[in-house]
Amino acid sequence: MTDLRDATAPLVEVKDLRQVYHKGDAPDLLVLDGVELTIREGEIVGLLGRSGSGKSTLLRIVAGLLAPTKGDVRWCGKPVEGPGEGIAMVFQSFALFPWLTVQQNVELGMEALDIGAAERRRRALAAIDLIGLDGFENAYPKELSGGMRQRVGFARALVVHPRLMLLDEPFSALDVLTAETLRTDLIDLWIEGRLPVRSLLMVTHNIEEAVLMCDRVLLFSNNPGRVAAEIAIDLPHPRQRLDPTFRELVDDLYARMTNRTPAAGETSRATDEGIPGTGIGMILPRVSTNVLAGLMETLAARPDGRADLPDLGAALQLEVDQLLPIAETLQLLRFAELADGDITLTDDGRRFVDSEVDERKRLFADHLLTYVPIVGLVRRVLDERSSHRAHRRRFTEELEDFMSEEAAENTLRSVISWGRYAELFAYDSQSREFSLEDPA
Fold first, then answer.
1. Which residues, other chains included, contact 221 with Cβ-Cβ below 8 Å and sequence gap of 6+?
2. pTM for this one?
């Protein structure tokens, strides 16, 4: 088979990309800002970052499924004005038609290309065989495992012989073992030159996955999404997770993801401490107090209360997108410190671990009021009102001046959960009211 991975002119060029979502009367949401990207033949490029950093939005812009607010996006030297010929996409969800067989699902993408029935069948069977589903041509999606369904998704993308294949977290919906098997199979086919693809651009929030598969990784920051760093992965395939250089790259990416660069309007102090935003506009992650306490107890059991984040994530079976919100919340509350990919319990964190339930709640309440402005606002409003009550809307409207409706909703849910645990206030989900007394 001819090697399709010869380096030539760029397949994709993105310059000064900006994406804004308009929300009626609410403030516009800036998703991507100043993004630069080049994809050349013969490489696998990873877009690595937290959820909400705009990675999937960028992928859809490259695919021609979404028009950017500003910027120049080119496919093979020509402006992208719609879905590009020669680009195929594999989604996180399997997106199969349940009433079609495996072969019919795979053939579907070729019908729009006006490929004859005989050629469609030939290509489909070849792709099904290539991706490891030989013998399942006539099976329906409900008869397949999750990993097999995703293989159908890969076959459907490959069958059109794309120059560029876009992967939007294609392994995240699979169990750990299935995902690892599918990654390995895909890389083996790439190394052997058997994939009818010239380059791959993949979105991931899994650091080890990025180091395992990619030649280059673009690390995205949040709010708005920007390319914070570009890291070359100069390791030969197949790559070994226990290789010291592999571990160093993983550690470096963890460190880069925990050492943030300033967002517009942030003070240097807030940035140095890794706090995600300042003032009322601080977006809070959805993390339960049980999980926070559990991580503090885990750290307290380690020497010096310190842990390497990649090792900690592996031990707890948490991906970076799951571990970092917990770690950053502990840092926000000054129960832990993050630096260079490590997390260390503070003296107050140790006090929390060593305390009984009531003292834990008191300490948590003190830290919430001191370090989380929106919690202080809720308590202050309740204290000042003679009824000691306030509707949820009072606070969502204020938050939406700084963030999207979804972020405001998630932030307020965290405020409710944390404030209840700390016994700073009560919340009635039926009346949607905060109060200083438990609802009747």
1. 49, 53, 228, 260, 261, 263
2. 0.73
Number of alpha carbons in the 13 Å side-chain half-sphere of residue 201: 26
The pLDDT of 129-147, averaged and rounded, is: 88
Q: How far is CA 373 from the centre of its chain?
A: 26
d(CA 266, CA 209): 31
pLDDT of residue 7 exceeding 80? no
Judging by beta carbons within 10 Å of its beta carbon (0-12, 13-18, 19+), is residue 256 exposed, middle or buried? buried
Alpha-carbon gap, residue 418 to 428, rounded angstroms = 15
Q: Which CATH number fits domain 280-435: 1.10.3210, 1.10.260, 1.10.10, 3.40.50?
A: 1.10.10
CA atoms within 13 A on the CB side of 139: 13
State the sign of the Cα–Cα–Cα–Cα dihedral 123, 129, 132, 138: positive
Say yes or no to pLDDT of 27 above 70: no
Q: Side by side, which strands form the sheet with 336-339? A: 306-308, 342-345, 336-339
Give how far the C-alpha of residue 244 lies from the chain's centroid of Cα atoms, to the nearest Å: 26
Residue corresponding to tokens 């006006």? 114
Domains of the chain: which residue ranges? 12-258, 280-435
Pair type for strands 199-204 and 164-168: parallel
Whether 280-435 and 12-258 are alike in CATH topology: the answer is no
* Residue pair 160/110 in contact by the 8 Å Cβ criterion: yes
CA distance 18 to 222: 14
Cβ neighbours of residue 188 closer than 8 Å, sequence gap 6 or more = 238
Tell me the C-alpha distance between 320 and 302, whole Å.
20
Overall fold of domain 12-258: Rossmann fold (3.40.50)
Q: Compute the distance between CA of residue 50 and CA of residue 327 in angstroms, rounded to an integer.
A: 13
Task: Give, rounded to a whole angstrom, the gap between the first and last alpha carbons of the chain.
Answer: 74
8 has pLDDT over 70: no
List the one residue out of 233, 336, 270, 30 whose CA is nearest residue 324.
336
**Helices vs strands, H then E, count in the chain:** 16, 16
Order of strands, sheet of 426-428, starting from the edge strand that comes earlier in the sequence: 389-391, 433-435, 426-428
User: β-pairing, 199-204 with 44-48?
Assistant: parallel
Residue 439 pLDDT > 60, yes or no?
no
How far is Cα 260 from Cα 274, in angstroms, rounded to an integer?
6
